[in-house]
Amino acid sequence: QVQLVESGGGSVQAGGSLRLSCAASGSILSIDAMGWYRQAPGKQRELVAHITSAGNTIYVDSVKGRFTISRDNTKNTVYLQMNSLQPEDTAVYYCNLRKRYGVGLTSNYWGQGTQVTVSS
Asked: Are strands 31-39 and 46-52 parallel, antiparallel or unpaired?
């Protein structure tokens, strides 16, 4: 079993910054990727960013140039540095971990979510 513990959410003014952290524990071998999703009220959950085991990153267009995803393998932790935050970034952010069991065979694990609120 995999456990994901998120931290770093909160409330900031537009233009401010937050750093989200997600620490993984348990059965954490064969991690394919870790990333962050977000869901605003009345909106569909969307991928914000993820980083693969090889270090490759993907960002949703709306956060490119503002958010940076990184990892610390010694701590089994993934970070999301969120700069120049805007009100449209307000959402619950969920940490996601994807494990690989074989070619085309993966499983996803989720954190409990952390609220990010950006006021104008």
From this structure: antiparallel
DSSP letter string over the chain?
-EEEEEE--EEEETT--EEEEEEEEES-TTEEEEEEEEE-TTS--EEEEEEETTS-EEE-GGGTTTEEEEEETTTTEEEEEE-S--GGG-EEEEEEEEEEEETTEEEEEE---EEEEEE-
One-letter amino acid for residue 109 of the chain: Y
- Which amino acid, residue 51? I
Q: How far apart are CA 60 and CA 36, in angstroms?
A: 10
Mean pLDDT, all residues of the chain:
95
pLDDT tens digits, one per residue of 97-111: 999 888 889 999 999
